[in-house]
Amino acid sequence: MYSLIPLFAVLLTVVACVPPSDRPGDPLGNEKPSPVVSVAASGDTAGESMADYRWPRFLGETFNGEGDTGSLQFDFTTNPALVWQMSVGDGYGLGCVSDERYYQMDAVPSNGGTSERLRCLRLSDASEVWSVTRPMAYRDLYDYEAGPRGTPTISGDTLVTYGVDGVLIARSIQDGKELWKVDTNAVYGVVQNFFGVGSSPLVDSGLVYVSVGGSPLEDRSVAPGRLDRVTFNGTAVVAFDLATGEERWKSGDDLASYSSPRLMQLDGKKLVLMFGRENLLALDAQDGTVRWKYRHRADIVESVNAMMPVVNEDLIFISECYQVGSVLLRASLDGVSEVWKDPKNRRKQSMGCHWSTPALIDGALYGCSGRNNSDSSFRCVDFETGELLWSDDRRIRSSVVRAGDHLIVLEEGGTLQIIQPNRKRLEVVAEYDFRDLLTRPCWAAPILVGNRLIVRGDRQVVCMKLAIR
Question: How far is CA 430 from the centre of its chain?
Fold first, then answer.
């Protein structure tokens, strides 16, 4: 059943809470605190606690965009309420959440240059706990924004960030104090990727794993953007000690992509999966030994791999949107075999993921397929066979997260839909129009912790409260 919540009612509820000076389009002040609309504007939340809910890294605790909602059941027939809205500077990524704190990176003007900013904010009202900045110098080859693309990662009392310029920093969550820093571009000879560093760090068992993709010294003279002429130096992934920042191991012959490393358990062994520029790499999490690699990328020079691998037991799904599409692999510690693979004919491919990662529910993948809005669609694909079950040719790119037994789909223009997973057809149960709150593009996958939904536009982050049944 297609149940459409009146968009006008949603906009009236949301926009009425936002003072005109805080609405989209206002310029960001030079390192001034961002204007925030507090929870008091949208209703009392006394007695509610978000302390038990976390979103510690990119795509959440389980790597698959599954909201940390416990036993909550949502009432999507009731309009979400605005909790707060704040302005953000350059960048495309959202943050992370732990212990009722929200951490957001961006880039702001500073003394005639640019600084990377990291803020710790109260989840309840976005009031600032602390804020730190560092000078940075980054110039995008294609004139995209000079801010962070990745997501901070929390582990215990440490917060790890990975900037667009390749600077990896560990900080105390108490006050933002820097514990250690590594300029990975300088140390490992990274030749700038098309859009800088777009990967997020992975922290596990006292190690910080990052996609580096360095090159030999002589490759630094290669013309900008000619990554086809750049070679590698065995630093596809580098693991650092979380406490000290010291290198523990480096491994893998590949350049960096815009995907992020994730974990996989296989036959009692913990592996780090990294979908690099050329290959999917499986590395021993303890010592970096390459267990196997599988080549998967387009022959087009200006193409990227960006989605995070989707894992279900020993099956791994990867995809790209430029040429080769998708493949499902069955993995062992010694190698992989193809379960199914998209044909070369792009019109017959099941799914081509650009920068968003699909959600896997009950044996079906739900996600956006396509490189540009003109060729994008939201699709449902059988995970184990690759059969395209249905396609909604909405022709706009989107990202998806899971809210219990529903999906939240955010289109890059600011429209958000609640979808009931259904292998037979698209089933939209609610739709909210946030285009008056968020300037496009909305590229980051939303965050869901408890009943708080955090969504980013180009210049704003908003926190909404979902109704509970």
Answer: 24
Residues 6+ apart with CB under 8 A from 357: 59, 64, 65, 307, 308, 310, 367, 399, 400, 445
Q: Which two tokens stand for residue 62?
A: 């389980």
- Which pTM value belongs to this model? 0.90
Residue 136, strand partner residues: 114
Residue 188: what residue type?
Y
Q: Which two tokens stand for residue 224?
A: 């900008």
**pLDDT reading at 162 higher than 60:** yes
Share of the chain above pLDDT 90, in %: 87
Give the strands of the sheet with 377-382, arranged side by side. 359-361, 364-369, 377-382, 388-392
pLDDT one-digit tens code per residue, 337-382: 999 999 999 999 999 999 999 999 999 999 999 999 999 999 999 9
DSSP-derived 3-state class of residue 201: coil
Token pair for residue 68?
């940390």
Q: Which helix (H) or strand (E) holds 188?
A: helix 184-188
The string of DSSP codes covering 214-278 is ---GGGGGSPTT-GGG----S-SEEEEETTT--EEEEE-S----S---EEEEETTEEEEEEE-SS
pLDDT in tens, 176-207: 999 999 999 999 999 999 999 999 999 999 99
Per the rule left: phi > 0, alpha: psi between -120 and 50, beta: everything else, 176 is: left
Taking the C-alpha atoms of residue 81 and residue 458, their distance in angstroms, rounded to an integer, is 21
CA distance 297 to 6: 43
HSE-up of residue 174 (Cα within 13 Å, Cβ side): 4
Query: pLDDT by residue (tens digit) across 2-49?
Result: 333 333 233 333 333 333 333 333 323 333 334 444 443 444 444 478
3-state DSSP assignment of residue 173: coil
